[in-house]
Structures are given as structure tokens and as C-alpha cells.
Amino acid sequence: MDGPPAVRRRRREQAVTEPAYARLSRRLREDIEAGVYREGVRLPTEAELTEQHGVSRQTVRRAFQGLVADGIVYRVPGRGTFARESTGRYLRQLGSIEDLMNLSTDTMMEIVTPLRRQVDIEAASRLRLDTDLLYTVSFRRLYDVVPFVFTTVYLPESVGRAVLEAPEVAAGASSTYTMIGLVEPHLDLPIVQADQSITVAAAPAAAAAAVGCEPGHPMLRVDRLYSNEREEPTELAISYFLPEHYTYRVTLRRR
Questions:
Q1: Residue 200: which of 212, 186, 218 has the closest Cα?
Q2: Is the pLDDT of residue 9 over 50?
């Protein structure tokens, strides 16, 4: 068996739409998770992968770059590329808006509470709205069918109305989309900035139910406020990550 129907469908969709480097990266990631390449085992060389998969050396290099950035493999000059021991947690390195949008490449979004119009004074204030009415949707995200985060997204009315009929935000919907990926095509200006804060918080009841932990369980709370080039907020996302299944990593470099 290759997994539940939703996972098999997602893999078929990815095979059609994803670039060659992303497809190869995903294939190698799956092999590592399946134990084909265990801790310290050398992966095939660039030349070997080029021949095996019928892709260019540049495609192989780009696939390796993503795996290195995510901490899945490490490279030893003159020796090759080696697998790291899996921790069982979802790990993704984030350095750009594109990285956030690319969560759709290897995770599934499942709607918990469909997109709807409601009053939320605090969220409206953070979005700098002149009304307390906005649209909100809640979902959980899964990696390899394991839920690791519960997110509530708040949208200004104009943005929420634009995606209200989208099947991806309907009750019970499951897709490989991200909310910013759904929202951005309907914006007058693209999202260019995400202001983020990270704290430790007790799991609210809704988050606990979505990811399968006890209410009050320590979670990683991540708030992101997305803005366009005029510094106008277009989306507020509040997420509760389950530490047992999620690792957050940031790389800082000196210019």
C-alpha cells in the first residue's frame, strides 16, 4: 500500500505539477524516511542520480541543496552526501515568502472550520481594519498523514470574499494548498513581507483536538502577519505547532 487515498492522490498531483528537482528531492526524502539510506549511509553521487533519473546535474544539485537546507542530509567535501538520522519530526527551513508557500509541496491542509464571516476585535485590530468584521478559517496541516500544526487564518473582508467559494476552504476539504497560495492571486499587490513572533503557549481545546494532544499541552505558537509592498496587512495566521512532530530551524548569515 502507498498510503491512504488522499496521500496517493496528492502524490499523483505532485508528479504532474512539481519541477524535476522537487520531484527528485521528494523521492530521496521518502527513501531516507523509509530507511533505504540510514544515518551515515552515502547517497548516490550526482552522476549516478543523473543517470538513474534521466535529469541534469544541475537538477540533482538543486535537489541536494533543498535536502541539506532541511537537515535531511549533510555533505562531506571529497566524500559525498550522507543521510541524517530521522527524528520523526517535520522539519522545514524557512527563509522567504516562497518557502512558506512551498509548504504545499510535502504537507496536506485539512479544513477544521470552513471560511466564514465573523466578528473578532483583536484580529481586526492587528490587521488594521476599520471594522471588526473579517473572515476566518481554521485547519490542521499533516506531514505523511501525521497532524503537526493547527492554524487559524484571519482575512480582511475583501480578501475573504474573493476565496469564499473556493473548494479548498469548504468544510472537510483536504488539499495541498496553503492559504497564502490561495489568497495571493486575488490581491491587488503581492505579499512581500511576513512579520513573525514565536512563543510557547498551552494548547487551546481546538488545537489539542486537531493534533491529538491534551488541552494545555505545551505548544509552539507562531503568529505571522503578512503584508504587501505598501505595508498593508493582508492575512494574519496564528498557528500552534506540536513539538513532538515539528522542528523549527533558522539559519543566520553575516552579510
A1: 218
A2: yes
